[in-house]
Amino acid sequence: MASTTTRLRGLVWVVPALALLGIFVYYPIVENIRLSFYSWNAFSPNPVFVGLQNYTDAAADPIFWRSLRNNIAYAVVSLICQVGFSLCLAAVLEEFVHQKLRGVLRVIYFIPAVISITVSGILFSFIYNPQFGLLNRLLGAMGLERFQHAWLGEQKTAIWSIIGMSQWQSIGYTAVLFVVAIQRIPRELYEAAKVDGAGAVRSFFSVTIPMVREMTTLLIILTVSGAFLVFNEVMVMTAGGPSDSSQVLGTWLYRNAFLADNMGYASAIATVIFVLTFAFAILQILVSRRRRVEI
Amino acid sequence: MTAVTSTSASTPIAANRATRGPGWIRRAIAQLFVGLILVLLVLAVIYPLLWMVFSSFKNNSELFANPWSLPGELRWGNFERAWNAGVVRFFVNSTLVTAASIVTTTLISAWAAYGLVRVNVPFSGPITGLLLGGLMVAPTVALIPLFGLLQRLHVYDSVWALLILYTAFRIPFTTFLIRAYLIDMPREMDEAAYVDGATRTQIFWRLVLPVCRPILVSAALLQALFAWNEFAFALVFISNTENKTLPVGLMDMQSRLLTEWPVQFAGLTMAALPMIILFLIGQRQFLRGLTEGMGK
Amino acid sequence: MTHRNRTTALIAVTAAGALAACGGPGTATDKTSAAPQLTASATTKEGTLSIITKFADPKYAPYFEKVATAYQSANPGVKVDLQQVGDQPFKDKIRVLSASKQLPDIYFSWAGDFANKFVRAGLAADLTSVIGPDTDWGKTFSPAALKAFQYDGKSYGVPINLDAKYMAYNTAIFDKVGVTKPATLEDLLSTCGTLKAAGYTPIAFGNQYGWPAIHFMTQLNAMDVPEATRSTDYNPATGAFTDGGYAKALEQFKQINDACFESGSNGLSHETAQANFLSGKAAMHFLESVEFSGLTEKGGAPADLANNWDFFRLPPAGDAAGDKGALTGAPDGFMVNSASKNAALAVDFLKFMTSKENGATMTKDIGWLSSVQGTATAENSFPQLETALKDISSANSFAIWLDTVTNAEVANAYLSGVQGILDGSQTPADVMKGVQSAAEKAKKSVG
């Protein structure tokens, strides 16, 4: 056992990280919870203590629930595309495609991920433009005029258009990560499956999917937490409109704090986001810990 | 060892399956179908980007009249207007903040990770918990309280604010990555150096960091992607146009160049092209760096 | 394990300490600071002035840069730090700045409760002593413009222009189709029908950010609800919005939407709609007089439109119960930060900006009517602008934009509600419910 001073000196290693975290990450959480019990804004002379009112307001606020539903929709679609479809895409790339072509395709699919999300957001708001945008023109050229919409201007289509853009941005990214995971699968497993008479699809389900479990878990965590934290895309493309139909929790928070002069309420929303992501993270840890024990 | 190339025998599409065996029609159709999807995906990725570049050379009426076509003439003036609207400035600001935060985050996280894994730090259990617990905190949640804090620290509306925040909020994830990597590293290597009289700090700089290069590169690239795209903090904490980073500056530009669509396209092109070109040049290193460390 | 318990206790204590150490939100500022010194005593002026405007639009920005540069040349010791933001981003930007106590020395403000917010929060300097109706400077302004920035009998803002909302129409199209200027709302609706049948978009309308629809509602509310009721309702402390005229106004807007607008207006920007009017696809367009210059050849409009347009006020319904002679409009203005260390310099700059000379330049350069009297002449303005000035001077009363005259909660309820009317997802009754509950909430937060 080293002496106390040596042990204390050991703290030097973690102090910078802890200090930064404590001041800029943990303190805001606590402060945010405290602020959510007040009613105040940029112009209020005196903040008023209102107890749980902001939370009851949230529960009664249809737009709050709309935002939550939009976040959930985001998560579900992202899981399907960025985990489900990406995995299939990666498997196809690894199994069916010629080596040289494989590298080229991987690079091409990955390109959207290196473009700033804001650039994609603005680009897609042009693609969705009802008058000169690519999408409507494409539909027109194929004779599908009746499917043309003001994609970002109609309540029914706005959030889905944004979610679509998000998939464009990230499918290549997750596919590349899956490719790496698939490459680590020992070939013998596939050989064994083939010997057992499994075709491409069967071995995908019986070999590929189980063997990329860790990467899948990681990507599920990233995708779902990303879906609840989404802010950039929505802000850039619709700012939550029209009629607040494409609000997500992050933008609804921002709007209440900086456009509706209601910061206490915004703090309450922030606390809800925190609780949701916190709970999900804990869930993931528990699940992965259990799984590790199994393996 | 993690290699980017596959160890399986390279096969052209389905060459290792007999082309004449039973069910070859079904296989051929499946190949066609798969090939079609792959091609569609390529188009889906490339066409919007091409459209972006072409449109930036047009003028408004050409854009409305003929979105598909190649531009009639190369209107470089659009790029000049976008330049004057500050695109370059935003790009530079983003690069500076991203590069700086890569250095600070990686160093501080590696420092902490090494400390936790090799050095006998008191309370190491709870401290690890605290460091990694930060993973669960979303930046948006901290927006409002950070206001008063940053302002009291007199860093509001400066790149320092972003630097501090980008570092603080990424420490948990980066520490997590590096720590996982270090745990798998054999102790004997640095124990030997320790016995030879090297201090922990020397071991850190001379031995551990170089050996950890793969994971450090991965962490750096992930940090770059995060900082490059970060929007909420940049939106709220930077107010002077001079100091804005790319994401916020582009939105700013959009609200100023209201109906000058081609100029906006030019701005987008100027913002996206450097990254794409950089990526294409360094893609092997990039993809390898991104994934090598994460394989553990 | 004692280890863990000790650590938990440590964390708990730190958290409690953090909670206790912080004061309530916003207690850092002292809202009762002494009124700033407004009249400069020194003969040489020096210092740095920070200004934020919402005029980043390349059509208008140059004028303000010009004024700033001119002021700097005339006063070499002064540096003007001019920040120009877009119209929409300004709305959250100004709140971010206010919340972080970073408000510049001079800042733009819309008239109405938007400006009054700043006054109530102690962020606006009381300018009565320099710009009140009895002062030399105050007398140079049009009285209505000055009044728009008064609160509780005191002056807090400096109006820089006059602005009103009109329906511009393409006279050539009207002649061709055989319709005339409508005198009532019913006439307008049937004119729209005729125009639509002839293949034109009756009114070019894009509502992307919500305020274009609000401007229609401002005029309709003014014409359908008596003034006294309106002032009570627009005041956040007493707002109720129970008068039947409000729902009637929404109903009328719905009728206008069905007869005169293209569908999908929520997805179109105001500027894109304007482009449709300029190109002759649409026959009418509801816009502000500060935008008139964009309809002239000098402002870049095609000759076909530039030589063939006129305007009228949005007409009232035959049985309108409010103020039929009200005109939607308000001056734009600047306020001075009460915590500014350069308040005297700021006032001096604003005096410079609103000198007769600079007012005339404003009209000449960017086609705005200045709030300074006697600045619009035949030389520096065009015929429609002169007519507008006469009309504005003769208006009974001004209806300030609905989204700035009321408090933010009510404004937001209207903004999103009206978008719902446009795409058919909400009825006037739905929207009024939303507005009424927002008004309740507003009462609580202000009172």
Secondary structure elements and pairings:
The complex is a heterotrimer of chains A (295), B (296) and C (447).
Chain A: H1 4-9, H2 15-35, E1 38-39, E2 48-49, H3 53-60, H4 62-96, H5 99-114, H6 117-127, H7 134-141, H8 155-183, H9 187-195, H10 200-211, H11 213-229, H12 232-237, H13 249-258, H14 263-294
Antiparallel strand pairs in A: 1-2
Chain B: H1 24-55, H2 60-65, H3 76-84, H4 87-118, H5 124-133, H6 139-152, H7 159-183, H8 187-195, H9 200-211, H10 213-229, H11 232-237, H12 246-256, H13 261-281, H14 283-292
Helix pairs in contact in B: 1-13, 3-13, 4-7, 4-10, 4-12, 7-10, 10-14, 12-13
Chain C: H1 2-21, E1 47-53, H2 61-74, E2 78-84, H3 87-99, E3 106-109, H4 113-120, H5 128-131, H6 136-139, H7 143-148, E4 150-151, E5 154-155, E6 157-159, E7 161-162, E8 165-170, H8 171-177, H9 185-197, E9 201-204, H10 211-224, H11 227-234, H12 244-260, H13 270-278, E10 282-288, H14 303-306, E11 309-312, E12 326-328, E13 333-336, H15 343-353, H16 356-366, E14 369-370, H17 383-394, E15 397-399, H18 402-405, H19 408-422, H20 428-446
Parallel strand pairs in C: 1-2, 1-3, 9-10, 12-15
Antiparallel strand pairs in C: 3-13, 4-5, 6-13, 7-14, 8-10, 8-11
Radius of gyration of chain A using CA atoms only: 24 Å
Question: What does the oligomeric state look like here?
Answer: heterotrimer
Largest sheet of chain B: none
Cα radius of gyration of chain B in angstroms = 25 Å
Terminal-residue CA separation of chain A: 35 Å
Here the CATH topology of chain A equals MetI-like fold
Q: Overall pLDDT of chain A, averaged?
A: 86
Overall pLDDT confidence of chain B: 80
- The CATH homologous superfamily of chain A is called MetI-like
Characterization of this structure:
The complex is a heterotrimer of chains A (about 300), B (about 300) and C (about 450). Chain A has about 300 residues and is an all-alpha fold. Chain A has a single domain (about 30-115, about 170-295), classed as Orthogonal Bundle (MetI-like fold). Helices cover about 75% and strands about 0% of the residues of chain A. In chain A, strand 1 and strand 2 form a beta hairpin. In chain A, helix 2 (about 15-35) packs across helix 14 (about 265-295), helix 3 packs across helix 14 (about 265-295) and helix 11 packs antiparallel against helix 14 (about 265-295). The two termini of chain A are about 35 Å apart. Chain B has two domains: about 1-55, no CATH class; about 85-295, Orthogonal Bundle (MetI-like fold). Chain B has 14 helices and no strands. Chain C is of the alpha/beta class and about 450 residues long. Chain C has a five-stranded mixed β-sheet. A four-stranded mixed β-sheet of chain C has the order 9-10-8-11. At the B-C interface, helix 6 and helix 12 of B face helix 1, helix 3 and helix 13 of C.
